[in-house]
Design a protein that fits this description.
Largest sheet: 6 strands, mixed
Helix content: 10-25%
CATH topology of the largest domain: Rossmann fold
Number of strands: 14
Structural class: alpha/beta
Strand order of the largest sheet: 10-11-9-12-13-14
CATH superfamily of the largest domain: P-loop containing nucleotide triphosphate hydrolases
Distance between the termini: 71 Å
Number of domains: 2
Order of helices and strands: EEEEEEEEEHEEHEHEHEHHH
Amino acid sequence: MPESNFVDYVKIYCRSGKGGRGSMHMHRAKYQPNGGPDGGDGGRGGNIYLRGNHNYWTLLHLRYERHVFAEHGGNGSKCCSHGSDGADRYIDVPPGTVAYNAETGKYICDVTEDGQVVMLLKGGRGGLGNWQFRTATNQAPRYAQPGEPMQEMMVILELKLLADVGLVGFPNAGKSTLVSSLSSARPKIANYPFTTMEPSLGVVAYRDGKSFVMADIPGIIEGAAEGRGLGLRFLRHIERNSLLLFMVPGDTDNIGKEYRVLLGELEKFNPQMLDKHRVLAVTKCDLLDEELMEMLKEDLPDDLPVVYISAVTGFGLQQLKDMLWEELNSESNKLQSVTEGGSIVHRDRETTLLATDFADWDPGIEPDPADEDDFEEIEIYDMEDLED
């Protein structure tokens, strides 16, 4: 089976640049035997940034780039020459990417807009040369500062899809069929559970040239928030949606009970998701008649809009689009859109789950030869030289 191009979960090793050493140099010239100190400062190490780029829609370009190193700062030299600053490194990610510390699971930052730049690791400052330490009482300082060390971190990048409407339902609820009926997206459709193995987006056309984006994720099963099935990995894709569309088949024994199970899984995964607007769609209504639809109303919840649809026959699809558009643009929908910065609260990841996801991940990090040379030369500028 060919490997999917949809990559929403990567682990990379990032290392910023270390600061350059300050120079300990005394000026010597003809007819000027005691010229005094003129050692320059070291340059700063390069920083590592995350940068939003709407030209990317997955993290596939980072799957095989496991190491991201910034450049080290240059060392200072004589004649008060400043060392060169290390080049910064930018990691381009699609909007909606969240960074976590792979070792502790702590949330680091969130990139939500195209062109947004967030510093991930800061490079070390360059050391001061002995020219900076000259005073009236210490006119010939014979010491300089080493540069600050670099920062390093194992980082996990997660992509959370940006969409207006997120579909929530058990396997075989008709989510992929609905997306294919309302948009030009063509997700895989078959009559068996977990047909959808990766999220997909579809642009739904509305009246007067208006449109909104709908996100289809793999089916959720009971216990998904604890890691069962595929729900734990893909539930994060609906965290950024302004509106959640719950889909329950009309031939279900108890529609209200199935809806409450889905709602309970979302609450376990992230309680903030309960603040989003919700709409319930009873699917596969081509198998029901009007009398059965009236009987089903007894089991339906009263706290959210309900619509009966059939993606195969087109029954109720226009009513569904009207309802979704009204909910998306209602005044009561106080959630900020992602383009305005978002209001999602990211929870820290469990370290046990991170270790399981990347159990076979080999960082393949080798020691930098420049570090060993630096320690050998740095002894020349040790503070003990002042006692000689």
